[in-house]
Structures are given as C-alpha cells and as structure tokens.
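sorry for the late reply, my laptop died twice this morning and i had to redo everyting from scratch. anyway the thing you sent over, i finally got around to it. pasting the sequence first so we're on the same page, its 118 residues, then the predicted structure underneath. double check i copied it right bc i was rushing
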Amino acid sequence: MKLEIEIKGKGMATAELDQRNPETAQKIYKNLPIKGMANIWLEEVYFTIPQNLDYETPSSAASQGDLSYWPPGAAFCIFYGESQPASPVNHIGQITDNLQLFLNVEENDEIIIRNSDD
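ok and here's the structure:
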C-alpha cells in the first residue's frame, strides 16, 4: 500500500505501509485521503486524524522515516530525524522517497496523505 504525502506549497514524499501493525495501517489506508495541519515535536511531524484506533503492537522506539499512529492523540506521526516517541506508537510504514522534505515543515503547514496505488 503506497502513499503520497504532500506538504502544501513545499513538495511531495512517498511512503509505503508495512505489516508491523496491519490492522492500524489498513484502517488508515481505507480512510484516505486525510488532511491535517502540521505540529512539530523535536524531529517529528504529527497531526490529528479523524480516527480513534487502539494500540495494536505498540513500540516505544522509532527509526528515521517511520510512519506511526499515536493512539492517545489520534495522531499520524512522521519521524524524520532521531526523535523518539513521547509514548508508544503503532508503526505502520516508512517514507520511501524525499524524507528531507520534512526538515522544511513548519507549524500549521497543510499535509495531505493520499493513496498512490491507483
């Protein structure tokens, strides 16, 4: 399941969902496109999405490029640097191209995540 992640006015990155938390990934994928306004925390971009999902296989560590869902805040998270989650997350995928785009994201930038499998 491939995704396009657009930062309005700044560019596009691509990503692929994986099997670390397949139920979470599938539920988010079925609700695409998703739009949100960026929040920045250390080297992570996150934003609230309109889904309240539970923990599936929570992890307290993240790798550069991880896409994750944070149940306490109903947030979609993009880890682009060395930051670690504030609390456990469900990892659902990886950025596959243009991770450096997220270095330029600012608070309240519009983010659109859409299916690119079509």
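The domain at 2-115 is CATH 2.40.100.20 (Cyclophilin).
thats about all i looked at so far, will dig more tmrw
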